[in-house]
Amino acid sequence: MDKNAHEGKKNWEVYLSLGSNLGDRIKNLGYAIGKINGFAEVISTSHLYESEPWKMNSAHAFINQCIGVMTHMNPESFLTQIKAIEKELGRKRNPNADEYQDRVLDIDILYFGAMIVDTDQLQIPHPQIQNRLFVLQPMNEIASEYLHPILNKTQSELLSNCNDQSRINRM
């Protein structure tokens, strides 16, 4: 029997990156985790990390965190739920912007089991994981041996090979 089978549904291990650089950043992340826990079981949370904005021009530092959850939802339904949380906290997306924008809340799906998804709305694994210290540091903390299904490297290996020189501090 599949070790992930539960009541006839697949139980997916999902990893998320959360970030905020506007408003009460810590409160924003806590609120998001509480909402996520309403439709998925939060199984791990990293420490909080403060980081400088990545590839964007902003005076506002980010607070970042990674979490692991278990869910029976499919990736598209899960994405709909997290986008609703972002919108509820006031996230405004500008599809015409030339660079990343300040945000009250950003939630990225990093991994969804070993699934590979590549659609206009969703890419799993997230295509920038290996380039972002603010993702790899907290991911390594909660799932250092988790294997990237395309790059075939653990989070620990990705962190060791990351060229990102951004400033990041554990809080």
Structure description:
The protein has helices spanning 25-36, 75-88, 133-143, 155-161; strands at residues 5-6, 9-10, 12-20, 41-45, 49-51, 62-71, 106-112, 117-118, 123-124, 168-170. By secondary structure, the chain is α+β, with helices and mostly antiparallel strands. The strands form three sheets. Strands 3, 4, 5, 6, 7 and 10 form a six-stranded antiparallel sheet that branches. A two-stranded antiparallel sheet has the order 1-2. 26% of the residues lie in helices and 26% in strands. The radius of gyration is 16 Å and the shape is globular. The chain has four helices and ten strands; from the N terminus they run βββαβββαβββααβ. It has a single domain, classed as Alpha-Beta Plaits (2-Layer Sandwich), CATH 3.30.70. Helix 3 runs antiparallel to helix 4 (155-161). Strand 8 and strand 9 (123-124) form a beta hairpin.
